[in-house]
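dumping this here before i forget
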Amino acid sequence: MHHAQPQHPIDKRHLRERHLRERHLRERPLRKLGPALAGIAALLWVSSWAPLASATEASGSSASDARVQNTVLRPNFAGHWEQDYARSDRWDDELYRAVNELQREAVVRHQRGDGGPWVLGNARRQARSVMAKARLADMITRQGGFEIIQTRDQVRIERADDAPLICSTRSDRQETFTSVHGRESCAWERRQLLFEVELPEGVTIQHRFSLDPGGEALSVLTRVSSQGAPPFDLRQFYLRYDKSAESFRCVQTLSRGQVCSTEDTGAGVPR
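structure:
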């Protein structure tokens, strides 16, 4: 005669401690940026900056929502991705181009007498704001690669040393996190996946993911914007690769920095 094994009661204290530990791990990468972002926030005319905890799981949808979302076809972002440094923007090059454009437009307006005597001073203030945005864009886009896990219901972007980006495949805009420090949301715009962080000081950070027609290259457009000055854009390109079949060979160049390309290791067939 077999006796049923006694069931152990659920240790609620243990579950709470594990939840708090996992939340701390999600917040830790952004906390590291806090001291460096203090100076950047001052240049953007904000009084303070607090890290925004990222990416809680999207809330479950109702049965009717599930039936609707299952009919929506989404691009297949799933896989391992490594940055294509040769095609990706360099933040300092983009900053130089943006500041030159501001100065050129200011000189033209000044020569036409358009905008009054403050046009040149205003251009200098806008240039300082763009410089701060460029530094911020560089800090938040330093991942050399990431893994995307995609199901019929969800896309999860796992980033090294940073919190994951998570979005449902539903058609409506989804608020994934909100607090006194700001709000994080995601949305699908046709075949592009958009993540947006809005800070209470008026600074907005966007990451826009889009696939090329062949599905083997991915572009991520990061935009940092604020009121009263032009936004700063930084576009990076990534290549899909089979982690078990290929390795990446990187070389340091004078013109483009580190440039990586794939090489077959013989363990499988390159994608």
